[in-house]
Design brief:
With 384 residues, this protein is an alpha/beta fold. It is built from 13 helices and 13 strands. The protein folds into two domains: 132 residues, Alpha-Beta Complex (Aspartate Aminotransferase, domain 1), CATH 3.90.1150; 237 residues, Aspartate Aminotransferase, domain 2, CATH 3.40.640.
Length: 384
């Protein structure tokens, strides 16, 4: 195996999901809902399959209807204008979009500054591109971005800032002041920025999600990435997109075409249908998940965890030291057998293993009765 892949191993999600299957545990580890998305979207996918018009290769950049739906979405929610023919690229989920962007834009030896803890594919994709990862650590209890640390992390070899907001796994939503500082730094140092915004519609308690591309000087240097999976509860469809200038889209497309080429033919028109849903869908989605967040936060606090309430995403974080443990990895590997519940240790998302060691991530994108049962199992199992 190439040296750049050493240490990556099997993803923690595969390991913990396999444990969930083997033990029959409730899986609060991997972030996928246990209910389907909007029926109009599902029926559109069925219709697309049965029509026989979308079962072969779609255009390499994605079907026109979906590219137009993406541009309409960006204009509707953020007043950002993109040309659907030259400034949008449809990808196999946001994960491929991130991989293709890094492969396209990072030269061997370039530094990529990323917020830590980071989604695990970031580390792998930076490594595959030959880049060097430079973390800026978000620390509990607030998990705010340290702007002085960010500025100190940017050096002469820095090429890209990789920004994720709402942030997985901490649930932090960057504030307008934080985003403005990131934008100013990117412009000052002439950096490219890749933004992972897959949880864009899952920001709670009135916290606004503001795309970095909307700030002065950022439209021309930002690769904005999102996807249908989280917003429409179809994580298995793997339909994502990139919005950027024609030059940046061409670069990402050059790498993407040699990864999957195309994907999700009949799902693309269905996602176009979903993106046009009225505002009530997005409001109900947010409110429903905020209520689930509150339910699981309260339940885990009752069990005895120190709980860090997230501002967004599908996830919340706890510190296991409040229950007498100090190693999140060992705790999560013990949990399925002892309690019948699966969670994800934060440590795998950190270069600074000490910072992540006592922290554990839980997914709350499940039916209420599943969350209640999981809390009950944890209470009974940990009391033993």
């Amino acid at each position: 195996m190439a040296a750049r892949l050493h240490g990556l191993g099997t993803t923690i999600f595969a390991e913990m999901s396999a444990l969930a299957v083997r033990t029959g545990a409730i899986n609060l580890g991997q972030g996928f809902p246990d209910t389907d998305g909007p029926s109009s979207m599902l029926e559109a996918a069925v219709g697309a399959i049965r029509s026989g018009q979308h079962n072969q290769y779609p255009p390499g950049i994605g079907i026109p209807a979906l590219r137009t739906a993406v541009t309409d979405h960006q204009k509707r929610f953020y007043d950002l204008s993109y040309d659907p023919d030259t400034e949008v690229l449809i990808t196999a989920g946001a994960t491929e979009a991130i991989a293709a962007a890094l492969l396209a834009l990072v030269e061997p030896g370039d530094e990529v500054v990323a917020m830590e803890p980071y989604y695990d594919s970031y580390a792998a994709c930076i490594a595959m591109a030959g880049g060097q990862r430079v973390p800026v650590t978000l620390r509990p209890p607030e998990f705010r971005l340290d702007l002085d640390a960010l500025r100190a992390a940017v050096g002469p070899r820095t090429k890209v800032l990789l920004v994720n907001t709402p942030h997985n796994p901490t649930g932090t939503v960057l504030t307008p002041n934080e985003l403005s500082a990131v934008a100013a730094l990117a412009c000052e140092r002439d950096l490219l920025v890749i933004t992972d915004e897959v949880y864009e519609h899952l920001a709670y308690d009135g916290a606004p999600h503001v795309p970095l591309a909307s700030y002065p000087g950022m439209r021309e240097r930002t690769v904005t990435i999102s996807s249908a999976g989280k917003t429409f509860a179809v994580t298995g469809w793997k339909i994502g997109w990139v919005c950027a200038t024609p030059e940046l889209v061409d670069a990402v497309k050059t790498a993407k075409q040699f990864l999957t080429y195309v994907s999700g033919g009949p799902f693309q028109p269905a996602v176009a249908t979903a993106l046009a849903l009225d505002d009530s869908y997005y409001v109900e989605l947010r409110d429903s998940l905020q209520a689930k967040r509150n339910l699981l936060c309260a339940g885990l606090a009752d069990v005895g965890f120190e709980v860090f309430v997230p501002q967004g995403t599908y996830f919340l974080t706890t510190d296991v030291r409040s229950l007498g443990y100090d190693d999140g990895v060992e705790f999560c590997r013990m949990l399925p057998e002892r309690c019948g519940v699966v969670a994800i240790p934060h440590e795998v998302f950190y270069d600074d293993k000490t910072a992540g060691r006592p922290l554990v991530r839980w997914a709350f994108c499940k039916r209420d009765e599943v969350l209640v049962e999981a809390v009950d199992r944890l209470g009974r199992g940990l009391r033993r």
